Each structure stands twice: as C-alpha cells, then as structure tokens.
C-alpha cells in the first residue's frame, strides 16, 4: 500500500509541474502559476503523510504548507 501511495504522490507532483508550466506559459504571470504548483506539492505531501505517519513526515508537510503560505503572501504583496 505504501508503494501505491508513493507512486500516487509522485504522479500528483508531476501533474503539478505540468500544470505550473502550462499556466505560466499561458499567462506569463508567476502570481497565477506558483499557487497552483504549491497546491499540488501540498497535496502530494499530504498523500505521503497518509502513507508514512511519522514526525519527519509531519514536519515535511508543515514545511511545505509554510512555504506555500509565505510564497503566496510574497507574490500577493508584489502584485499590489
């Protein structure tokens, strides 16, 4: 089961990169594309956490969420 979860998380990560590149190519705005990538990375982190419930997994997921929040705030600040 853990192998399937890892494969699914890898697939979500790859999909996030594809969506990010597509959104950036279409809009040429990092403000639009970056939150998409970070949401996919957060989803992959949560999937990995479901497969391996450990403190290191929890800390990695918290770090991904923190980076997403800081990056989204930074991008929003530059747009105003």
From TrEMBL:
The chain crosses the membrane at residues 6-26, 57-76. Keywords: Membrane, Transmembrane, Transmembrane helix. It comes from the Bacteria. This is DUF1622 domain-containing protein.
């Amino acid at each position: 089961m853990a192998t399937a979860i890892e494969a699914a998380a890898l697939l979500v990560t790859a999909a996030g990169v594809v969506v990010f590149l597509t959104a950036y190519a279409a809009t040429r705005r990092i403000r639009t594309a970056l939150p998409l990538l970070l949401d996919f990375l957060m989803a992959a982190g949560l999937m990995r956490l479901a497969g391996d419930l450990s403190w290191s997994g929890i800390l990695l997921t918290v770090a991904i969420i923190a980076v997403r929040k800081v990056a989204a705030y930074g991008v929003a600040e530059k747009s105003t």
